[in-house]
From TrEMBL, chain A:
Cell inner membrane keyword on record: no
The keyword Nucleotide-binding is annotated on this UniProt entry: yes
UniProt cross-references to InterPro entries, sorted A to Z: AAA+_ATPase, ABC_AA/LPS_Transport, ABC_transporter-like_ATP-bd, ABC_transporter-like_CS, BCA_ABC_TP_C, P-loop_NTPase
Keyword annotations of the record: Amino-acid transport, ATP-binding, Nucleotide-binding, Transport
Protein purpose: Probable component of a branched-chain amino-acid transport system.
The family this protein is said to belong to: Belongs to the ABC transporter superfamily.
Protein's GO biological process: amino acid transport
Annotated GO MF terms: ATP binding; ATP hydrolysis activity
Gene3D superfamilies from the UniProt entry: P-loop containing nucleotide triphosphate hydrolases
Protein name in the entry: Probable branched-chain amino acid transport ATP-binding protein LivG
Highest taxon, organism lineage: Archaea
From TrEMBL, chain B:
Localisation: Cell membrane
InterPro entries assigned: ABC_transp_permease, LivM-like
Entry annotated with the keyword Transmembrane helix: yes
Protein name: Branched-chain amino acid ABC transporter permease
Transmembrane segments: 54-73, 85-102, 109-132, 138-155, 176-195, 227-250, 262-286, 298-316
Keyword Transmembrane helix in annotation: yes
Tree of life domain: Archaea
GO cellular component, one term: plasma membrane
Short name of one Pfam family: BPD_transp_2
Keyword vocabulary terms for this entry: Cell membrane, Membrane, Transmembrane, Transmembrane helix
PANTHER family in UniProt: HIGH-AFFINITY BRANCHED-CHAIN AMINO ACID TRANSPORT PROTEIN BRAE, HIGH-AFFINITY BRANCHED-CHAIN AMINO ACID TRANSPORT SYSTEM PERMEASE
Bilayer topology term: Multi-pass membrane protein
Major subcellular location class: membrane
């Protein structure tokens, strides 16, 4: 699998972390939104990323996905240096992303949203000009039933409620089966009942499908419950890393959240 | 079932129940190819049943022509979300290509028409690399710029006949053009219909709905946009290639007609952009209306066009087909989704 032929293209540390960032820095004019940040996510982990508003969490995600180009530092995906790759290529290499504001294709039916997410076959002309086959259609129905939205396959996705759209976006990632899934505030703006479901879905995906997940979250109960490890950002800097218990008892973290320097 | 009858109170709803409309869409969806074949046969009948060359045949041929152009516009404008004001540039390039090849190089009409399509595609590939980087208003204005530039170039060149254009005297009969435009239209409808159910078609729609999300999902959107743009230029270029002979005359004003560009956008929007039938229905409807108004109230057709566009955009932004589809799916949503949402406690307000 590994293309270790080109030394410059691979992770110098040689490890096979699913994701590793090395000194990633991103500036907007005078503001350093992400400041020399190292993170690492191992296969099968659920890793949390927390920090006050404006800490640079989404910006770090954007640097990982290639939506933004980091000013300094490198990003390695499965040991490959993807820092200078275009965004679509990084995604195709196995990186999935759910957005903070929830984004699905509103004027397409729910079914088409899911079909689109299926990765198999790639961008070959033959695959592009083929109609979705029965196994793919069956998988779509299965996933919709799984997230309790069965029967909505032919509905225009934009008609669904915010929470339902979030579930569709999640189902799309289950369809795509990325090596690593970045989730930006999955619990934001959804009601407690649905949050319970979502936690269950994420757990199941992690345990049964071995999905590796890196998630930003403001809901502390949620992230403490679900994450194996947590990174904390404040003012663009990584100020702590550890298990949920360690983070909860870390003085610097408490200070950052209380606004003390 | 009780919820259904409650919300079915409106007169419109009782006359045309949404589920009946939905069923109609279901039938159309399931028998798309048969419907297309049947339409092709119906379209082919009039000359066989005695429609003579003349005014009516010309008007119907023009309807087919506009349907080709509106559907082509919609591949990029409606399916992919890039509203172009420069599609007539492909048309003009096609028109001049056949005119020049036939008049100056004595190439046969069918060959010239194929070449016209290919030249338009090559032009689209080059131009697309630049304009498809732009979005929204910038894209619209850039494409308009391309149209005006192409028009100006044809005015200044010798080979295009300059401002006075080119006259073509030896042309096939009106019946030939009738079937030619019909044939191209049917093929194009088949292609668009087929593509709209493939992964390629889904990707175009995804680009329209949220290009950044599509990129984040691993699609190289430039590649797909350019492919759609080239496909649109192929049909537009071929149509233009036939038009110069159909019209027996071509000049910069006719070939690169900005008013037509607006007209065909109006047709696609009116009928329902992002669908196969919408732009075609819109073209037939609007061209008929324009033709009637032009005959009855000379000079008022542009005013009418303006009114029609404004009313459509405000009242039925989805167009005829889109509005109907939305109406039809309404019941579906309340029957299944609306209920499901209530069951899972969707309406519970946030606590904390
Ligand atoms: N495109 C941009 N241009 C300029 N400044 C930006 C841009 N994106 C983010 N910023 C700034 O960078 C800082 C970090 O923003 P970011 O969105 O990464 O924070 P966050 O940790 O995700 O916050 P939140 O929890 O509110 O989502 C903020 O001060 C923000 O205003
Ligand atoms: Mg954020």
């Amino acid at each position: 699998m590994s293309k270790a032929t080109d030394a410059a293209e691979t992770d110098p540390q040689g490890e096979r972390a699913v994701l590793r960032t090395d000194g990633v820095t991103k500036r907007f004019g005078g503001l350093t939104a992400v400041d020399d940040v190292d993170v690492e996510v191992q296969n099968g982990e659920i890793v949390g990323l927390i920090g006050p508003n404006g800490a640079g969490k989404s910006t770090l995600f954007n640097c990982i996905t290639g939506t933004l180009n980091a000013d300094e530092g490198r990003v390695y995906l499965q040991g490959q240096d993807v820092t200078d790759w275009p965004e679509y290529k990084i995604a195709r290499a196995g990186l999935g992303r759910m957005f903070q504001e929830t984004r699905i294709f509103g004027d397409m039916t729910v079914r088409k949203n899911l079909l689109l997410a299926a990765q198999e076959g790639g961008a070959s002309v033959g695959n592009l000009l083929r109609r979705p086959d029965d196994s793919l259609l069956a998988r779509t129905e299965e996933l919709l039933d799984y997230v309790d939205l069965g029967g909505l396959a032919d509905t225009r996705a934009g008609r669904l409620s915010f929470g339902q759209q979030k579930l569709i976006e999640f189902a799309m990632e289950l369809m795509a089966e990325p090596d690593l899934l970045l989730m930006d505030e999955p619990a934001g703006g959804i009601n407690p009942a649905m949050l319970e479901n979502l936690i269950q879905y994420i757990r199941t995906a992690n345990e049964d499908e071995e999905a590796t997940i890196f998630l930003i979250e403001h809901n502390m109960d949620f992230v403490m419950e679900i994450a194996d490890r947590i990174y904390v950002l404040a003012h663009g800097e990584r100020i702590a890393e550890g298990t949920p218990e360690e983070i909860q008892n870390d003085q610097r973290v408490l200070d950052a959240y209380l606004g003390r320097e | 079932m009780s919820a259904e009858s409650e919300s079915n109170s409106g007169l419109l709803r009782s006359l045309v129940p949404p589920d009946q409309v939905d069923r109609l869409f279901g039938v159309c969806g399931a028998h798309g190819w048969k419907l297309l074949a049947a339409s092709a046969v119906v379209g082919a009948l009039p000359p066989l049943l005695g429609l003579q060359q003349g005014y009516y045949m010309t008007v119907i041929s023009e309807m087919f022509l506009f349907a080709i152009l509106a559907l082509s516009w919609d591949i990029v404008g409606g399916q992919t979300g890039y509203p172009s004001f420069g599609n007539m540039a492909f048309f003009g390039i096609g028109a001049y290509t056949t005119a020049i090849l036939i008049k100056d190089f004595a190439i046969s009409f069918p060959v010239a028409m194929v070449v016209a399509g290919l030249v338009a595609v090559a032009f689209a590939a080059v131009i697309g690399a630049v304009v498809l980087r732009l979005r929204g208003h910038y894209f619209a204005i850039a494409t308009l710029g391309v149209l005006l530039a192409a028009q100006q170039i044809s005015r200044n060149l010798d080979i295009t006949g300059g401002a006075s254009g080119k006259i073509l005297l030896e042309v096939p009969s009106g019946t030939v053009f009738y079937y030619l435009f019909l044939g191209v239209l049917v093929v194009e409808m088949g292609v668009v219909y087929y593509l709209s159910n493939t992964r390629f078609g889904f990707i175009l729609n995804a680009i329209r709905d949220d290009e950044e999300k599509a990129t984040a999902m691993g699609f190289n959107t430039t590649y797909y946009k350019t492919a759609a743009w080239m496909l649109a230029s192929l049909f537009t270029g071929v149509a233009g290639g036939a038009y110069s002979l159909f019209n027996t005359f071509i000049d910069p004003q006719t070939a690169y007609n900005g008013a037509w560009n607006v007209e065909l956008i109006a047709m696609a929007l009116l009928g329902g952009s992002g669908t196969v039938a919408g732009p075609v229905i819109g073209a037939f409807g609007l061209h008929t209306v324009i033709e009637v108004v032009e005959t009855a109230f000379v000079g008022w057709q542009l005013v009418l066009l303006g009114i029609v566009v404004i009313v459509t955009v405000i009242g039925f932004p989805e167009g005829a087909v889109g509005t109907l589809r939305e109406y039809a799916s309404e019941m579906e949503y309340y029957k299944r989704g609306g209920m499901a949402a209530t069951d899972s406690g969707e309406e519970v307000s946030a606590d904390e």
